[in-house]
Design goal:
By secondary structure, the protein is mainly β. The protein contains 1 helix and 11 strands, in the order H-E-E-E-E-E-E-E-E-E-E-E. Bound molecules: FE2/S2 (inorganic) cluster.
Length: 149
C-alpha cells in the first residue's frame, strides 16, 4: 500500500516546508520546495544530511512506500521501500530537463513534459530517456537508519 491510501495517518509523516505536508493529487511539487523539516523519524543533521529512522516512518513500513525528504543539499530526494525490502534514496530531478517530479499512484510524474517513472525511478515514458538517479545514502543495519546525502 502506498502513502496515497485514504488513511490520513499514513500521510501525516511527510515533510514539507512548514513541517506539514500531505501527499495527494497535485500536492507533490509544493512538498518538495525548500529544505526538509524534521518529522517523525526524519531529521536533518547540521551537515545537511537527512537521517531516516525507518521504523518510525509509517509510509516506509510496506513495500512500495515512500517518504519525501524535501531537498537534501539542494537536491529533491525521496526514500522508497523497494520490492526486496531495502530502502533507497532517489533524486527526484527529472532526467529530461531537471524539473522535480511529483508522486503519483504508482511512481513519479514530471509536471513539465509528462515523463513517467516507476517508484524505483525506472523510466516508463519520455521524453526523458533515462531513469531517475539514485541519491547517495548509507544504510546502518544496527540503527535501522538510512543516512541520505
Ligand atoms: S523536465 Fe521532466 S519531462 Fe521534461
Amino acid at each position: 500500500m502506498s502513502e496515497l491510501s485514504a488513511d490520513p495517518s499514513r500521510r501525516a509523516f511527510l515533510v514539507g516546508v512548514c513541517g506539514a505536508a500531505l501527499l495527494g493529487a497535485g500536492l507533490g511539487s509544493a512538498l518538495l520546495a525548500g529544505d526538509a523539516v524534521a518529522a517523525t523519524g526524519i531529521r536533518r543533521k547540521k551537515n545537511g544530511q537527512v537521517v531516516v529512522t525507518v521504523a518510525k516512518v509509517p509510509s516506509l513500513q510496506a513495500t512500495g512506500g515512500r517518504a519525501l525528504l524535501g531537498t537534501v543539499k539542494g537536491t529533491p530526494v525521496a526514500v522508497v521501500r523497494e520490492a526486496d525490502g531495502s530502502f533507497a534514496a532517489l533524486n527526484l530531478a527529472c532526467t529530461h530537463q531537471g524539473v522535480t517530479v511529483n508522486p503519483d499512484a504508482a511512481g513519479w510524474l514530471c509536471p513539465a513534459h509528462g515523463s513517467k517513472f516507476a517508484l524505483d525511478g525506472a523510466m516508463e515514458r519520455g521524453p526523458a530517456t533515462t531513469n531517475l538517479a539514485a541519491y547517495p545514502s548509507r544504510w546502518d543495519v544496527r540503527r535501522g537508519t538510512l543516512t541520505v546525502g
